[in-house]
Amino acid sequence: MAPHSCRPPGPAGRKSPQTNTREPIIQEPESSEPEATRRDAGVTESSRANRGWWDRNADDYQNEHGTFLGDDRFVWGPEGLDEVEAELLGPAEDLKGKDILEIGAGAAQCSRWLAAQGARPVALDLSHRQLQHALRIGGGVPLVEADAGALPFADGSFDLVCSAYGAMPFVADPVLVLREVRRVLRPGGRFVFSTTHPIRWAFPDEPGPEGLSVSGSYFDRTPYVEQDDDGNAVYVEHHRTIGDRVRDIVAGGLRLVDLVEPQWPSWNTSDWGGWSPLRGGLIPGTAIFVCERD
User: Fold this and answer.
1) Per 3-state DSSP, what percentage of the chain is helix, strand, and coil (rounded to 5)?
2) DSSP code per residue over 206-234
3) First to last CA, the chain
4) Is the pLDDT of residue 35 over 70?
5) Alpha helices in the chain (DSSP H)
6) What residues are paired with 256 via a beta bridge?
7) From the CB of residue 30, how many other CB atoms can be counted at a distance below 10 Å?
8) What is the pLDDT of residue 5?
9) Contact 126, 50 (CB under 8 A)
10) How many of the other CB atoms lie within 10 Å of CB of 241?
């Protein structure tokens, strides 16, 4: 999963990695801590900032979360909802022979699982460094470095498209991505994506009790931006309400067929940034949108 292929951060600020669960990887330290703010950030600025952020932080991300994600597991979010059980793309036996695009694939964990089911996945990510981790793990899944808003594929190339915390939380124009997904989907195809549950934007990004009190307006769509000393964005995340997401899906030419809000399972005792058993037992942390192209 990218909270997968993309980390599920939070609008109140990201947490620095605390543990290494994979082999150490050399990485250049950041020069200074960025300033967290709320301000406008457009398509180009968001894409440039997030490409750089993931290139700089892919090592720490895979170190910290690699064990949870596994090398060939398809997890939809920090709760640990597994596609083996969820079957949001359909029964595993029906995936054989399907052409599938994973957007925001990170180290291609989900794509590797899809390949094991007999599917023909392609793993796409904005970050070159994330895809280097996919090469490090191996598995032979085709890798593509590209922006989700400009998919380098012909019309009707895929039966299914999926994105586990990939791209959608980070793009300034989600309709642009949704239209691109519709374009590359074949008629009757399905797009399933997970993202931070919109209600979380009203709460501090903290796993403990301090993360249970409303601290801001759910209706404030101002992007969360981390910027350097010169005011250049180095990380951007965009908030959409539930209603916004539904309207975006319709505007993108797709049809919403399900909205899944995973409950926190008793077996998962781990925190992931602002995601935790405490918060997960009270308010949803992930929203999964299941869409189809007619």
Assistant:
1) 30, 20, 50
2) -SSGGGGS--S-TT--PPEEEE-TTS-EE
3) 27
4) yes
5) 43-69, 83-86, 109-116, 128-137, 174-184, 242-251, 277-280
6) 291
7) 12
8) 33
9) yes
10) 15
Percent with pLDDT over 90 in the chain: 89
Residues 241-280: pLDDT tens digits? Answer: 999 999 999 999 999 999 999 999 999 999 999 999 999 9
DSSP string, 31-74: SSPPEEEE----HHHHHHHHHHHHHHHHHHHHHHHHHHH-SS--
Q: What percent of the chain has pLDDT over 70?
A: 89
Q: Write the single-letter amino acid at 48.
A: R
CA quadruple 71, 73, 74, 80: dihedral, nearest 10: -110
**Phi first, then psi: what are they for 155, rounded to 5°?**
-55, 140
Q: Would you say 233 and 259 are in contact if contact means Cβ atoms under 8 Å apart?
A: no
How many residues make up the chain in this entry? 294
Q: Whole-angstrom Cα distance, residue 6 to residue 148? A: 13
For residue 38, what are the contacts with CB-CB under 8 A and spacing of at least 6?
Answer: 220, 222, 223, 224, 225
According to the model, what pLDDT value does residue 32 have? 77
Give buried/exposed letters for 146-168 (b at 16+ CB in 10 A, else e): ebbbebebeeebbbbbbbbbbbb
Phi, psi torsion values for 265, nearest 5 degrees: -80, 155
Per-residue pLDDT tens over the stretch 137-186 = 999 999 999 999 999 999 999 999 999 999 999 999 999 999 999 999 99
**CA–CA distance from 82 to each of 68, 113, 164 (Å)?**
11, 11, 11
